[in-house]
Amino acid sequence: MDTLAPVRCPGTLGIDRLGDALTALSPTHVRRLAIDTALLASTLVAAGRIDEACATAREAVDYAARTTSHRCLQRIVEVQADLEPYRCEPEVREFVEYVRHRLPLAAV
Predict the structure, then answer these.
(1) What is the mean pLDDT of residues 58-82?
(2) Which residues have C-beta within 8 Å of that of residue 54, sequence separation ≥ 6?
(3) At a CB cut-off of 8 Å and minimum separation 6, what does 15 contact?
(4) Helix-then-strand count for the chain, H and E
(5) What is the rounded distance in angstroms from the CA atom of residue 61 to the CA atom of residue 102?
(6) Is the pTM higher than 0.90?
(7) Where do the domains of the chain lie?
């Protein structure tokens, strides 16, 4: 079940609700944390909060690196696609490089 489906909306309320939902997850649910943290990163991109999006996406990469889930890899690829319009920003370039080293299967 997708625990964050009802809150997939950009903007402060959506971001706050996503953050609250992540906080409520058990640290043992690494796959869910990877997917939902990546979703939060995408939501931050949509809100124009690129620095925060990149920091959050790094957390998602760290969670995803602890799993063998194809869906986690897919979400990391999707976050990179969301960040594509900002590819010239230093924090985005650093994130892409981080993915390349930490989670090569998700590198685009």
Answers:
(1) 97
(2) 41, 83, 91, 92, 94, 95
(3) 40, 43, 44, 47, 49
(4) 5, 0
(5) 7
(6) no
(7) 5-106
